[in-house]
C-alpha cells in the first residue's frame, strides 16, 4: 500500500520532470544568427524567376528563414529578367553585388521583389530581408537597398594543414584536409551560408605562416573541393603562399623574384591552380616577417615580390594581398615604425592587382592601438584593412569583448589629410581605387558554436557587416546581431547590447589603460606579463613597450623619442606631439609621462590608472549581473556557457588588475589611492603562474 | 504574361524543392546508437521508487528513449525497496552492477520491473530494455538479466593536455582542459550517457604518454569537474601517471620507487586527488616503454614501481593498471618476446590492487596478431586486456573495419592450459581473480559523430558490450548496433551486418595476409611501407618483421629462430612450432617460408598472397556496392559520408595491394599469377608518396 502511494507520487513527479526536459535539438549555438529554420506553418509564397545555383539558394534561404507569417508573396529575380527590367528600377548603382528589395507589381500581382544585377546580389538581398524580419521588420513594407562599399571582404584563416589553428580558440580547423577532397563535410556549406548572410565573399584557407605543401597538387585538389562548395554562395577561395615554395616544392635553388625561373614556376603554379579552381581569388603573402621567407632575403623589395606573384595570377583575374606586417629579424629603433618605413617608399611601385594588407594598428591587434600610420600614406596603393576577429589579446575564447567599437574606432579615424578617414582609404573613396578590401583574421573553428562562445559570433558578424559597409554603427550592428541571435524581446536585447557595447573598453581598462599595450605573457599571449624583460629580442618584451621606471611610464614616440608620430600626416602628428592634445586613451602609446602627471580629471596618472583597472573589473562584474538577470529569458545551454565564461572573465580581470598593479608598484613604489583594494597575491605569485598548455600557440 | 507563367511554373517547382529540403536536425551521427529521442506521443507510464541521481537518470532515459508504444507501465526500483524485496527475486547473483528486467506485480499492478542491487545496476537495466526494444523486442515480454563478467570496463583516452589526441582520428580531445573546471560542456554528459548505455564504467582521461602537469592542483580540479559529471552515470575517472612526476612537479631528485620520499610524495598526491575526487579510480602507467620513465631507470622492477603507487591509492580503494607494453631502448632479440620476458618472472609479486594491462597481441594492435603469450602465463596476477578501438593500423578514420571479430578472436583463443581461454583469464574465472578489467584505447574525439565516421561508432559499442560480457557473439553485437543505429528494416540490417562482418578480414587481406604485420609507413602509420629499412632501431623497420628475401618471407619464431613460440603453453607452442599446424592466418608471424611453400589450397605462398591482396580489394568493392544499394534507405548525411569513405577505402586498398606487390616482386623477382593485374605504378612511385600532415601523430 505504501509502495503504491510512493509509486503514484514518484510518477506524478516524473511527468513534471519530463515536461521540463530540454528538447533534443538544444540551443548549442550551431545556427549562429540564422535561427528561424523550418517555418512552423508551411511554406510561404516564394517564387523565383530564372535558374542558377545561387538563385536557388536565395529562394531556399527565404523558405528556410522567413517566418511563415510573411504577408506578401516574395519573388527573387535577376534585374535582367524581362519581368524586372520592365519595371525600370534604378539597378545600375547596385553594381555586381548590390541588391534591391521593394514592393513591386509583377505580372499583375503585388509582390516583394528581391533583385540585383547578379545572382549574388539577389542572394545578399534575400539575406538582407531575413535580417530585416529577424530584427523585427515586416515583409510587407520592406524596402532595402545596398551595395558593398568594399570589393574584397575576406576571412583569413590562420589554419595549419595539420588541423591546428594559430591563435585559434574554438577547436580545430574547419578544414578536414585529410579527408578532402573525397569527403565534403556538410559543415562547409553551413560555413559558406553564414558568410554569405553577412556579405563575406572570400576566404583564405591557410595560415599566413604557410607551408609550401598547400601549393602541391593534392592540396590544390582539396582547396578546389572547398571552392566548389563555396562557389554558389559567392565566396572565392584564396591561398596563403609561402614565398620560398619554388625551392621547397619546385626544386629550384632560389626564390628570388627577379629570377625568370622563379617567375615561370609561379606562373605555371598559378595556371595549375586555375585549372582546378577557375575563380581562384589569388594569394595572400606574409613575407620577411617573423622568420617567413621573402624577397628581402635576395635584396629585392616587397614590390618586386608582390609584382612577380601578381603577374602570375593576372591573366586569370587574380590578385595578391601582400601583408605590411613586417617584423624584421634585426632590432628595430621602434617596432611601431617598421611597416611604414619599409612600405611608404614603395607607394606607386605595386602592380595594379596588388593590395597591401595593413593591420589596424602599428603593433599587433592590441586591445587599443592608434590607427596604422600607413593609412593615408600610400595614396597610389590600394590598402586592405586587416582586423583580427579572433581575440588573441582580448581574452581569447572566454572573455566577452565585442569588437565592433574597436573596428569602427579605427575606420572612423581621421588620417589628417583633409576629411579623409581610414574607412575612406580602405573603401577606395579617398583615391578612387576600384580594388578594395578588408580582411578579418577568423575566429572560426570546429567547436559546435563555431567561435568558442556565443558572443564571439558577434565579432564574425560585425566584421562581415563592416566589410560590406564601413560606415555602419557598431551599436546598431550589435542590436541586429542580438535580435537575430536571441530574439527580439527588449528585456533581453537591452542588456545584451549594453554588455556588448561596454565590453571592449572593459578589456582595455583591466589589461592596459591609457594606451599601454603588449603587456601580456609570452607565447600564448594569455594573461598579464608586464614584468617580462629577458626575452632575446628587445621588442619581444613588455618592458620595451611600457618603459616604466621609478619616474614614469610610457613610450616616447615624439621627437624626443622614436618620433613615430612623424609617420602621421602633419595634422595628426601635431595632435600626437603633445600629451595635452593626445587623446588620453592613447596617452602612453605616444608619451613617457611621470607617475604624477595630471590627467584631465585632475587625478595623477597613477591614481587614474588604478581607477581604470578597477573600472574594468567593475564593468565585468556588472556585465555578469546583467547576464544573471537574463537567466529565465535565454535558453539554458547558451545561458550557462556565457555565465561560466563571465565568471572566468571576472576572475581574470581581477588577475590582470592585481598582477599589473603589483608590478607597477614594484617599479614606482607608490601606494594605492585610498579605497583601492590591495592585490590578492604578491608579485612573485603572479610571476610564477604558467600555462604550458594554453591554446592557439604557433608551431 | 510570359513573366507570370514563368513565375507560376517556378513557384510550383519551388514548393516541391521545399518539401525535399532536409530537416534542420540532420542525421549527423551525434546521437550514436541512442536515437529514439522525444517520443512523439507523449510520456509513457514510467515510475520510479526511490530517489538517487542515478535512478533519476534511469527514469529519464526510459522517457527519452523508449518508444511511446510501450504497452506496459515500467517501474525502476532498487532491489532493496520494500516493494521489490517482497517479490523475493533472485537478485543476489546480480552483484553490484547487474540488472533484472521482468514483468512483475507491484502494488497490485502489472508492470515491467527494472531492478538491481545498486542504482547503477538499475541504470544498466534501463539501457538494456532500450536496447532490447530498439533491436525489435517488445516491452511487454521483456525478461532480461545480466551482470558484468569484468569489473573494470575502462576507456583509455590517449588525449594530450593541449587538446591533441595521439592516434586520434576524430578531431580534438573531448576534454576542453583550458575551460575546465569552470565550463562543463554538455557534451561531457552525452559522453557519459553513451558509455553507461554499453556498460563502460571507467575512463582514463589522459594519454599514457603522460605529462606530469596532469597531476598538478589545477588539473586535478579539472579532472574533478569531469568526475562530477560522470559520477551519476556510474563512471569513475582514472589518470595516467608519469612515473617521473615526483621530480618534475614534486621537486625531488629521484623517482626511485624504493625511496621513502618518493613513496611519500605519491601518497600525498593520492590523498590530494581523493580529496577532490572521492571515487577516483586510480592510475594507469606506461613505464620504461618508448622513452617513458619508469622504475627500471633505477634498477627497480615493474612490480616495485606498481606496488609503490598501489600503496598510495590503496587506503582510498584505488587501483593501479600497469602496462606490460614495454619497448626497451636497447635492440631486442625479438620485439614480440619483450613483455613476456620482463613480466612473467614478476607473477605473484604485484600488490593485490594492481592489474597488469596487456595488449591483445605481442607487437602493437596490428590487423591480426596471435594472442599475447602473457595471457595464461601469469596466473597469480590479474591481467587486464588492452584493445585498441581507434584503428591506428586498420585504416584510421576512413576505412570500414568492424573490430568485433578481432576482439572475439583473441578472447576465444585457447591459452593451452586445459580449456582456458583468454576471456577466462581476463574475466578472472580461470584463477578466480576478483579484480578484473578490460581497457579500450578510445576512438572518441570532438568530431560531431564522436568517432570520425558512423561505422567507427560500432567499435566503441562492441568494446563496451564485450567488456561487459566477453562471451558475446560479434555478429550479434553488429546486428544490435546496426538496428539501433539505422533502424530495424531488414533491407538495411542485412547488408550492414554483412559489410561489418567481412570488413576486418578485408583489411588483413589488403594490408598483410598470412600473419604479416607492421608493414605500414613510419610515424603516422598510414599506408604501406614494407620497404622501410633505414630507421635507426632495427625493430622500427617493416623489414625486421617480414624478413623477405629472394628465397622467402616471414619471421621465424620457432626454435630455429627467436623461439618466441616457447612463450606459449606447450599445447599451443607445439601447434605454432610447425607451419603445417599453425593456422594459415598466422603463418608468417611464426615462420619464414619459401615463396613456393604450398598452402593448404595447393597454391604457392606467393600466389596465395597475391590472391589475398586481390580478395581484400574485391571485398571493399563489394562493400561499396552493398552500401550503394542502401542509398534510398539511409538518411542522406550518414549515407554520403560512408559512401565517400568507402570510395577512399577502395582506392587505398588498391594502393596497399599494388605497393605491397610491387615491393614483394622487387624482392622475389616472381611474376604475378595469371589474371592478377599489375600494380598501377612502379615501386619508386609508391616509395615517393608522403603524408606530412597525417593526423594522430604523437608529439
From TrEMBL, chains A, B:
Q: Could you identify this protein by its name?
A: Xylan alpha-1,2-glucuronidase
EC number, as in UniProt: 3.2.1.131
Q: What class of enzyme is it?
A: hydrolase
**What range(s) does the Glycosyl hydrolase family 67 C-terminal domain occupy?**
451-675
What family is this?
Belongs to the glycosyl hydrolase 67 family.
A single GO CC term for this protein reads:
extracellular region
UniProt keyword list:
Carbohydrate metabolism, Glycosidase, Hydrolase, Polysaccharide degradation, Xylan degradation
What are the Alpha glucuronidase N-terminal domain coordinates in residue numbering?
74-129
| Species of origin | Sphingomonas desiccabilis
Q: Which domain of life is it from?
A: Bacteria
Q: Which Gene Ontology BP terms does the record give?
A: xylan catabolic process
How is the quaternary structure described? Homodimer.
**Ranges for the Glycosyl hydrolase family 67 catalytic domain?**
136-450
Its recorded reaction(s) are: Hydrolysis of (1->2)-alpha-D-(4-O-methyl)glucuronosyl links in the main chain of hardwood xylans
Active-site residues annotated for this sequence: 290 (proton donor), 364 (proton acceptor), 392 (proton acceptor)
Provide a Gene Ontology MF annotation, just one.
Answer: alpha-glucuronidase activity
Amino acid at each position: 500500500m505504501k509502495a503504491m502511494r510512493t509509486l503514484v507520487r514518484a510518477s506524478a513527479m516524473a511527468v513534471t520532470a519530463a515536461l521540463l526536459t530540454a528538447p533534443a535539438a538544444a540551443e548549442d549555438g550551431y545556427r549562429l544568427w540564422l535561427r528561424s529554420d523550418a517555418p512552423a506553418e508551411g511554406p510561404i509564397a516564394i517564387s523565383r524567376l530564372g535558374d542558377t545555383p545561387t538563385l536557388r539558394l536565395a529562394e531556399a534561404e527565404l523558405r528556410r528563414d522567413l517566418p511563415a507569417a510573411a504577408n506578401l508573396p516574395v519573388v527573387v529575380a535577376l534585374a535582367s529578367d524581362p519581368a524586372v527590367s520592365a519595371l525600370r528600377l534604378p539597378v545600375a548603382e547596385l553594381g555586381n553585388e548590390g541588391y534591391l528589395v521593394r514592393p513591386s507589381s509583377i505580372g499583375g500581382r503585388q509582390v516583394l521583389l528581391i533583385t540585383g544585377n547578379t545572382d549574388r546580389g539577389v542572394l545578399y538581398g534575400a539575406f538582407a530581408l531575413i535580417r530585416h524580419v529577424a530584427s523585427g521588420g515586416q515583409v510587407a513594407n520592406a524596402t532595402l537597398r545596398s551595395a558593398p562599399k568594399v570589393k574584397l571582404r575576406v576571412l583569413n584563416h590562420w589554419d595549419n594543414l595539420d588541423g591546428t589553428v594559430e591563435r585559434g580558440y574554438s577547436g580545430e580547423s574547419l578544414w578536414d584536409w585529410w579527408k578532402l577532397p573525397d569527403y565534403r563535410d556538410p559543415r562547409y556549406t553551413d560555413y559558406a551560408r553564414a558568410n554569405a548572410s553577412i556579405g563575406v565573399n572570400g576566404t583564405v584557407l591557410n595560415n599566413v605562416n604557410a607551408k609550401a605543401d598547400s601549393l602541391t597538387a593534392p592540396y590544390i585538389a582539396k582547396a578546389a573541393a572547398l571552392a566548389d562548395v563555396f562557389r554558389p554562395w559567392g565566396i572565392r577561395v584564396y591561398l596563403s603562399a609561402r614565398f620560398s615554395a619554388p625551392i621547397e616544392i619546385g626544386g629550384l635553388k632560389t626564390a628570388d623574384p627577379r629570377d625568370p625561373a622563379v617567375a615561370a614556376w609561379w606562373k605555371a603554379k598559378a595556371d595549375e591552380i586555375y585549372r582546378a579552381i577557375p575563380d581562384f581569388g589569388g594569394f595572400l603573402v606574409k613575407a620577411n616577417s617573423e622568420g617567413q621567407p621573402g624577397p628581402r632575403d635576395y635584396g629585392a623589395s616587397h614590390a618586386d615580390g608582390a609584382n612577380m606573384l601578381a603577374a602570375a595570377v593576372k591573366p586569370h583575374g587574380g590578385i595578391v594581398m601582400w601583408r605590411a606586417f613586417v617584423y624584421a629579424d634585426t632590432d628595430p629603433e621602434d617596432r611601431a615604425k617598421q611597416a611604414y618605413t619599409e612600405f611608404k617608399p614603395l607607394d606607386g611601385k605595386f602592380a595594379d592587382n596588388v593590395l597591401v594588407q595593413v593591420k589596424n594598428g602599428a603593433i599587433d591587434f592590441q586591445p587599443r592601438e592608434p590607427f596604422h600610420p600607413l593609412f593615408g600614406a600610400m595614396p597610389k596603393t590600394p590598402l586592405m584593412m586587416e582586423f583580427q576577429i579572433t581575440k588573441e589579446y582580448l581574452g581569447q575564447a572566454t572573455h566577452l569583448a565585442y569588437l565592433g567599437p574597436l573596428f569602427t574606432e579605427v575606420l572612423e579615424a581621421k588620417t589628417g589629410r583633409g576629411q579623409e578617414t581610414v574607412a575612406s582609404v580602405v573603401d577606395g573613396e579617398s583615391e578612387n581605387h576600384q580594388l578594395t578590401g578588408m580582411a578579418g583574421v577568423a575566429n572560426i573553428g570546429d567547436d559546435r558554436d563555431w567561435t568558442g562562445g556565443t558572443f564571439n559570433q558577434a565579432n564574425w558578424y560585425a566584421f562581415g557587416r563592416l566589410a560590406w559597409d564601413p560606415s555602419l554603427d557598431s551599436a546598431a550592428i550589435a542590436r541586429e546581431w542580438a535580435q537575430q541571435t536571441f530574439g527580439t524581446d527588449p528585456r533581453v536585447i537591452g542588456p545584451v547590447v549594453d554588455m556588448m557595447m561596454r565590453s571592449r573598453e572593459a578589456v582595455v581598462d583591466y589589461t592596459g589603460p591609457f594606451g599601454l599595450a603588449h603587456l601580456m605573457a609570452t607565447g600564448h599571449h594569455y594573461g598579464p606579463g608586464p614584468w617580462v624583460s629577458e626575452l632575446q629580442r628587445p621588442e619581444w618584451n613588455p618592458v620595451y613597450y611600457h618603459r616604466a621606471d621609478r619616474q614614469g611610464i610610457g613610450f616616447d614616440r615624439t621627437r624626443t623619442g622614436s618620433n613615430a608620430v612623424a609617420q602621421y600626416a602633419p595634422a595628426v602628428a601635431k595632435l600626437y606631439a603633445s600629451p595635452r592634445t593626445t587623446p588620453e586613451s592613447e596617452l602612453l602609446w605616444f608619451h613617457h609621462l611621470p607617475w604624477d602627471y595630471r590627467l584631465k580629471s585632475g587625478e595623477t596618472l597613477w591614481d587614474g590608472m588604478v581607477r581604470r583597472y578597477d573600472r574594468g573589473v567593475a564593468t565585468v562584474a556588472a556585465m555578469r549581473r546583467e547576464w544573471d538577470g537574463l537567466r529565465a529569458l535565454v535558453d539554458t545551454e547558451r545561458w550557462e556557457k556565457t555565465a561560466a565564461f563571465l565568471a572566468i572573465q571576472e576572475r581574470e580581470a581581477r588577475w590582470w588588475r592585481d598582477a599589473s598593479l603589483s608590478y607597477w608598484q614594484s617599479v614606482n613604489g607608490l601606494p594605492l589611492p585610498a579605497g583601492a583594494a590591495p592585490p590578492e597575491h604578491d608579485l612573485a605569485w603572479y610571476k610564477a603562474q604558467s600555462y604550458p598548455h594554453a591554446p592557439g600557440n604557433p608551431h
